[in-house]
Amino acid sequence: MPYVVTDHCTGCRYTECVTVCPVECFHIDDDMTYIDPDNCIDCGGCVPACPVGAIQPSYLLSPDQQKWIEINRRRSAETPVVTMRLTPLAGADERKRALGL
Amino acid sequence: MTTVPRYHVAIVGAGPSGFYAAEALLRSDKNIAVDLFERLPVPYGLVRFGVAPDHAKLKQVTAVFERIAQMPGFRFVGGVEIGVDIGIDDLRRSYHAVILATGAALGREMGLTGENLPGTHQASDFVGWYNGHPDYRDLTFDFGGERAVVIGHGNVALDVARILVKTPDELRHTDIAGHALEALAESRIREVHLVGRGGPDGTRFSAKELQEFGTLGNCDPGVEMGDLAIDPFVPPQGVDPERKIAIGLLDAFSRRAWEKSRRCLFRFHLAPVGFEGHERVNRAVFRWSAQGEGLEQDVGIDTNLVFLSVGRRSAPVADVPYDAGRGVHANAGGRIGVEGEEVPGLYVCGWSKRGPQGTIGTNRACALDTVEKLLADLGSLPSPPSTAADSVVSSIWQRQGLRLDFEAWRAIDLAEVARGRVLGKPREKFVSVEAMIAAAKGKDIAC
Predict the structure, then answer these.
(1) Strand locations in chain A (E)
(2) Per-residue model confidence as pLDDT tens digits over B313-330
């Protein structure tokens, strides 16, 4: 039951998740972070750390969100590991507000 | 390390926060060597002795700790109790800085009548017992009754309940201690009550761990609806998503029938009052109160097995200021002491800094924060003689008559995995320090 990063991260990329990941399984591109499902140990520590609720266990994903399982797997293989918190993307706070959070 | 280290730092406690502190120090550009001291010959703290045996995936975090142990400048020094075998001041004289990462080893007492009656236990003692911790292996628990009560609504309480209701077949292929598997196989417990003061929106269960109760082979989860007001599963406004999921799961549990042979019953709004019994506990008494309605009444649950899971505190270390209120080493953001009067060169991280909260990774962020402070102070700390750290470690090894270092742990690890293989378990732990040491010497003795 891997955890996956979903579309709420896009355009925010707060990276709070990275600081609490015990196994450094977060990867990053210009838009968002991704979880490497083979390294994730299912601790769930990143879920409450995300300010926009972007991370979910795969078993709770709605049918239209299921695609994120494959996207996380593919993009984590193609992108570098992120080991430290980065500055959120420009406009992250506005997007967070727009999400009603 | 190809060059002579410029700084030496001692870390006390080889659990997650100790390892993450070591990693942060060794990744810095300050040329630091780290000695990681541990009371037992085996590392990993609560990953070995706290994480439940049926949570094998979580234990894969040890692969990260193994990588940290390979970093140049890292040394593991097992079998040494700081404050007993070596004073904290001796360590401080020999290292530029010392970080305490001693965890929260003690259960919190509640000060209730009958709390010390036989049959009433700290959850942490049970956890140490089923995980094969040498300090707890000789404890005994009476599983002869039909009902157990677990007090507390956090993840440790869930672990305790789950281990009590799982079948021997569900536990047989985990790394549960052999003595625990044997005793639990004879258990007659059919019902576990998980009791908390708050309502369904006030638990500290993580959704993932709660969800597991819906998938147990021989146990149905349930909710005692008599404890609750009308519409108890409506999440309050602004509640975080994790809590919302947990409330939804409890709602689903409340509608399940009891069909399997065991049941785990979630109970709410019950504050513990005391425990009754003559030679051993036979009843736990709680005060139920209806939220906002001023109604109160005493509720008794007949049981001869009670676990208190209402928090833990750090064991004080001799000569280190202690914050009795918070149950941690007194610290200001990781520097030991009180704000403005910090003890130079003495730091703390993990549960012994902030109390028992968060997941394994929370300790990574916590250790990084402490190390940042240490690095900022490093230039102004007095320098010990350059060979002092080596002298400390070599005198320990001389006294031990062997090196209980990371290589010794590898020998123990291999021997445990080999013992487990014949039983279909990932490992069969050694549960005494003597057996660990014998394995480190290459002699696998019975324990």
Answers:
(1) 3-5, 26-28, 33-35, 55-57
(2) 999 999 999 999 999 999
| Same domain, yes or no: B85 and B121 | no
- Residue B437 lies inside a defined structural domain of this protein: no
- Structural domains of chain B, count: 2
Does one domain contain both B298 and B317? no
Q: Is there a single domain that holds both residue B58 and residue B39?
A: yes
Confidence of residue A95 (pLDDT cuts 50, 70, 90): confident
Residue B222 shares a structural domain with residue B342: no
Interface test with A, best of B55, B158, B360 (most A CBs within 10 A): B360
H or E stretch including B367? helix B362-377
> What is the value of ipTM here, to two decimals?
0.88
Contact A20/B359, CB-based, under 8 Å?
A: yes
Q: Is residue B412 part of a domain?
A: no
Residue A101 contacts B where some CB pair is shorter than 8 Å: no
Which residues in B lie closer than 8 A to residue A44 (C-beta atoms)? Answer: 206-208, 359
Confidence of residue B145 (pLDDT cuts 50, 70, 90): very high
Residue B175 neighbours by CB distance under 10 Å? 21
Same domain, B297 and B317: no
The side-by-side arrangement of strands in the sheet containing B270-276 is B270-276, B283-289, B296-302
